Amino acid sequence: MPDKLFKKSDRLQNLSYAIRGPIFDKAQQLEAAGQKIINLNIGNPAPFGFDVPDEIMHDMIVNLRNAQGYSHHLGIFSARKAVMHYTQQQGIHGVTIDDIYIGNGVSELILMSMQAVVNQGDEILVPSPDYPLWTTAISLSGGKAVHYICDESADWNPDIEDIKSKITSKTKGIVIINPNNPTGAVYEKSVLQSIIKLAQEHQLIIFSDEIYDKILYDGHIHYPIAAMADDLLIFTYGGLSKNYRAAGFRGGWLILSGAVHKAKSISEGLNLLASMRLCANVPTQYAIQTALGGYQSIQDLVAKQGRLTKQRDLIYYMMTDIPGITCVKPKGALYLFPKIDISKFDFKNDEDFAYQLLEEKHILIVPGSGFNHMDDQHFRIVFLPQTDELELAANQMKSFFDHSRVTAVQTALS
Are residues 265 and 315 in the same domain? Predict the structure, then answer.
């Protein structure tokens, strides 16, 4: 009798997470073989010298003895109270302690939210390009992610007419990612108002991923959508990973606001899911009050002469100086999302480009198609490395593009 093969769940078929997908696996193999890889693939601040502020680290350390047991399943009181105060500063009305859920990063809370809200066959509108966890979480929960266009020619703001065209009787909610990963867009207030109007007309839930809400450049303003509507059910997500450079601490929060009185059943579902995981990691929870209430050192990093601004500017100007590469300058977050004029180069698409770049120059990026983008001509660069490493990477990429450029003879033959 032949050995029985055990296969992964059918729910995982056709799902992917390109940030740590096959190209990342190839990079790991190259590193294991002794190659040095320039990692421009993931928004992980610590390896690039962005330390967690000392006062946050201190409060975690002094509270370690208090963090030995399980906490309340929604989170410790001081952490939730700090998040509640933060909502008041943002102008979000009516949020109570019981409307706040502390999680092991925003990733866990996104999956919990989808499990609590989505029924089999429900449709959730998701931006294209997106942070791919959203699409995967919706699919794992039995729903269908329906991708709406974010318009590159309009600074990557959502295309309201395209959103309208994709709302059906099965549409339950809409996801916005603002500031946006992977494009660096910061949405205009009028665009958010238009999304609110559609949500009101069709009684949709809004899921607003605002993990980068303090990482803003050149004076651009982030508008929390929950402060703009009291009559909608709005889920808002934030955390320590980016603003406070504490990605490994896995500390995030979910805020329910607006028409919470219409969603008692969903709250019960979230409470059940929060209870099943017992609690979020407790040491990190003691850092949340200090993070939100203390000195906001991220402002120094995004100032005109701040490190993040300098790194963004360097990689933006070096990439857009390459013939055949264009890019919308990021207004927020940690990423560049350039476009390749594929007709000018001899690789097939963004994934082929990413593999060749890794093999020839040992630079790891993520192809745009990994973010559920509707074309195959973009890629994402993380600009967390120091300027000397970014400059090296940009020069290597320029060399690669020049080497891969289609000649006039090749164009004529084709």
Answer: no
pLDDT digits (tens, 9 = 90+) for 283-295: 999 999 999 999 9
Q: Are 288 and 310 found together in one domain?
A: no
The pTM is what?
0.93
Predicted pLDDT at 18: 64
Task: Answer positive or negative: Cα dihedral of 272, 108, 140, 128.
Answer: positive
Cα angle 43, 136, 122; round to 5: 140
User: Residue holding tokens 């609590």?
Assistant: 116
- Tell me: pLDDT of 231 over 70: yes
DSSP 204: -
What is the rounded distance in angstroms from the CA atom of residue 328 to the CA atom of residue 153? 8
Question: Residues, the chain, total?
Answer: 414
Give the whole-number percent of the chain exceeding pLDDT 70.
97
CA distance 222 to 224: 6
In the chain, how many domains are there?
2
Choose the final residue of a domain: 269, 293, 317: 293
Place of tokens 């502390």: 102
Tell me how far apart the alpha carbons of residues 403 and 196 are, in angstroms, rounded to a whole number. Answer: 48
